[in-house]
Design goal:
By secondary structure, the protein is mainly alpha-helical. The chain has helices spanning 12-23, 28-46, 50-67, 75-91. Helix content is 63%, strand content 0%. The mean pLDDT is 82.
């Protein structure tokens, strides 16, 4: 007799997390936010009380906003771009007239 295992359908939170990780590279703090958002999505799926549902949806909105996924860049990507821009600016700095040759 052959037994077939049914594959468990991933939860809404798991699907959300997988989709985000396929598109973005997150730092450890962002991964924590993503885990919380995924858990909140799963909780929302189980809730029946309209008041609690509304509260948890608000929590989810705040978590997703903190991840900054709507703009297409996570905060770590924004920080990396800012660092590159600052390095480029400082690499172009030329001595001003007050920075003449050193007297020796």
């Amino acid at each position: 007799m052959t037994t077939t295992r049914r594959r468990r359908t991933p939860s809404r939170g798991e699907r959300f997390k997988r989709a985000v990780l396929e598109r973005f590279e997150l730092d450890p703090a962002e991964l924590e936010l993503l885990d919380e958002a995924a858990a909140t999505l799963d909780l929302i799926e189980r809730l029946e009380d309209p008041r609690e549902l509304r509260l948890q949806r608000d929590v989810l909105r705040r978590l997703v906003a903190a991840l900054n996924l709507e703009g297409g860049e996570t905060s770590s990507e924004v920080r990396a771009k800012a660092r590159r821009a600052a390095r480029a600016r400082w690499a172009r700095v030329v001595p001003g007239p007050w920075e003449g040759p050193a007297d020796g």
